[in-house]
């Protein structure tokens, strides 16, 4: 194999594929990136961890077709350190790959291409397209609520499903048992009848990185066990989480009768300030609601106390409720408008947070004792 490629092009392609590769691998081939020089098609780069696979095609001058695999992180680090604007020549033969750029020359050990595992996709019967911006919105507004608890593996991802309400919609939800985030978008053509799927956390993270370089739409194909995203020159394929997502609609409150309308920015800044002294373990902040007056306070045995009054529109009966400050800040950070609605019931019931009843996203936050 012999190919010549511009450093910036190779670096961008490698940065996309190498992040899938785990740093520690018991199977040596999984530390490698597959590099395939295809006559007339450029250079195909591929990496996998057996659950997730990224393939990207980059423009290159191919002198001799062929394929090999080489350490992904090593090659990425080499290319990163090469001078800007340089042309990189890759030559592979007899178990070695030579990387030449200007006066720099590297000889790297390779492993045979035939040993490289490829995720067999099988049939992916459901196919539809989503604008890249919509997909970004779905991920950004839900992924902070994905659980990191490995024992509840079915919560370690974003739950994607369709439903028929007043109009056909596609919903994405994530929860860790303390908070829930849900986004609803119009159902794209081709998505009706799709199976309910849970997209794993690592796939969500890699997809979000790739979306920054995509304009237009993303082609999505899926079955009950796998999902594939077509992102221009890159294709991301992932296994899905094999589990049943809980019926989250049961925890979305519908009868919370106390309504607080507040500016999310000043609310967020107030919570952030008083939470400075909150203990790391509980991160609890207390919210005392009175007519058009909200007092945020934190009492910490180690650090002392803090309180701040924030303006808000509230006319129901006064009461006190406590929240985990980190969870509250995560939710408020996703609110884009200049007003947020907080629907409350009492100090023990889940609280509903959303911009308004037309907003695509809604959030549910469980209170805590303070």
Brief write-up:
This protein is of the alpha+beta class and 370 residues long. The protein contains 6 helices and 26 strands. It is elongated, with a radius of gyration of 25 Å.
Write up what this structure looks like.
- By secondary structure, the chain is an alpha+beta fold.
- Helix content is about 15%, strand content about 45%.
- It has six helices and 26 strands.
- The radius of gyration is 25 Å and the shape is elongated.
- The mean pLDDT is about 95.
- Forms a ring-shaped head-to-tail homodimer around DNA.
- GO terms for molecular function: DNA-directed DNA polymerase activity.
Write the layout of secondary structure elements.
Elements: E1 2-6, H1 7-18, E2 32-38, E3 42-48, E4 52-58, E5 61-64, E6 66-71, H2 72-81, E7 87-93, E8 96-101, E9 104-111, E10 126-131, H3 132-142, E11 157-164, E12 168-175, E13 179-186, E14 197-200, H4 201-211, E15 217-222, E16 226-231, E17 234-239, E18 258-262, H5 264-274, E19 284-290, E20 293-300, E21 304-311, E22 313-314, E23 319-324, H6 325-332, E24 340-344, E25 351-354, E26 361-365
Antiparallel strand pairs: 1-5, 1-7, 2-3, 2-6, 3-4, 4-17, 6-9, 7-8, 8-9, 10-15, 11-12, 11-14, 12-13, 13-26, 15-16, 16-17, 18-22, 18-24, 19-20, 19-23, 20-21, 24-25, 25-26
Tertiary shape: elongated
**Global Rg:** 25 Å
> What is the terminal-to-terminal distance?
66 Å
Q: What is the strand tally? A: 26
Number of helices: 6
Beta-strand proportion: 35-45%
Low-confidence stretches: none
Task: Estimate the helix proportion, in percent.
Answer: 10-25%
Secondary-structure class = alpha+beta
Oligomer: single chain
Q: Strand count, sense and closure of the main sheet?
A: 13 strands, antiparallel
Q: In which order are the strands of the major sheet placed?
A: 5-1-7-8-9-6-2-3-4-17-16-15-10
Mean pLDDT: 95
């Amino acid at each position: 194999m012999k190919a010549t490629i511009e450093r910036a092009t190779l670096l961008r392609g490698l940065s996309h594929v190498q992040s899938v590769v785990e740093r520690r691998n018991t199977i040596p081939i999984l530390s490698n990136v597959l590099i395939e020089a295809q006559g007339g098609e450029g250079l195909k780069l591929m990496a996998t961890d057996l659950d997730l696979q990224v393939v990207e095609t980059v423009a290159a001058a191919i002198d001799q077709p062929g394929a090999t695999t080489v350490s992904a992180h090593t090659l990425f680090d080499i290319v990163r350190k090469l001078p800007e604007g340089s042309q990189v020549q890759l030559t592979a033969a007899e178990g070695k790959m030579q990387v030449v750029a200007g006066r720099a020359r590297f000889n790297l050990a390779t492993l045979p291409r035939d040993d490289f595992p490829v995720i067999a996709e099988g049939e992916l019967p459901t196919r539809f397209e989503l604008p890249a911006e919509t997909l970004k919105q779905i991920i950004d507004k839900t992924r902070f609520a994905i659980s990191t608890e490995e024992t509840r593996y079915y919560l370690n991802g974003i739950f994607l499903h369709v439903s028929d309400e007043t109009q056909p919609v596609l919903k994405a939800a994530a929860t860790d048992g303390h908070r829930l985030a849900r986004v609803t978008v119009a159902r794209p053509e081709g998505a009706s009848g799709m199976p309910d799927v849970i997209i794993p956390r690592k796939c969500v993270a890699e997809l979000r990185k790739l979306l920054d370089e995509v304009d237009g739409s993303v082609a999505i194909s899926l079955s009950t066990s796998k999902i594939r995203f077509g992102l221009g020159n890159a294709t991301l394929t992932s296994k899905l989480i094999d589990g049943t997502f809980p019926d989250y609609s049961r925890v979305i409150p519908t009868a919370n009768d106390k309504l607080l309308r507040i500016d999310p920015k000043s609310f967020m800044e107030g919570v952030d300030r008083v939470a400075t002294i909150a203990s790391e373990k509980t991160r609890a902040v207390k919210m005392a609601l009175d007519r058009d007056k909200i007092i945020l306070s934190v009492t910490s045995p180690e650090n002392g106390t803090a309180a701040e009054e924030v303006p808000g529109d509230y006319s129901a009966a006064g009461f006190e409720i406590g929240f985990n400050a980190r969870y509250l800040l995560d939710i408020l950070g996703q609110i884009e408008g200049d007003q947020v609605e907080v629907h409350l019931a009492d100090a023990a019931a889940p609280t509903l947070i959303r911009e308004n009843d037309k907003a695509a996203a809604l959030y549910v936050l469980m209170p805590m004792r303070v």
